[in-house]
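Example 3.2
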Amino acid sequence: DIKGKSEFAYEQDLRNFLSRNLQVIEPGLSLFEEEGTTGVEYPVGGRNIDILALDKNNNYVVIELKVSRGYDRVVGQLLRYVNWIKKHQAEPDQIVRGIIIAREISDDLSLACEGLANIELFEYELSGVLKKVKENN
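Structure, written as C-alpha cells:
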C-alpha cells in the first residue's frame, strides 16, 4: 500500500476518475446527461462546471475540483455554478448542492463554508496497491 503526499498531476485526471466513480463521493450519484451532453466540463454561462451530477433523489450536485489546496475563493466559483443551475436548469422543487474536492481544504475555505447548508467539503487521498503479475524463476 503506497501512501503519501500524492496529487493527481492534472485536474482532468482527477475529474475523469471521479466522473467514472461518483459512488466514492456519495452512493447514488450519477453523471448528468442530456441530449448528448454529459456532466463533465458542463457549460454554464461561458464557464464549465468540473462535474455536474444527480443524486439518488434527482437533485443536482455541482462538483468543483482542486488538485492541490482548496482556498476560500473557490466558494464564489462554486456558488456561481450552483445558482446558475438553480436559475436556468433546475425545476422549482429540485435542490442544488455543491461539493468542493481538494487535496487539502484550507482553514480559510472551511471558515468560508461554515453555515452554507448545501455545500460539502472533501479531501481526496490517493493510495495504490501493487500486485506482482509474473514470478521470475
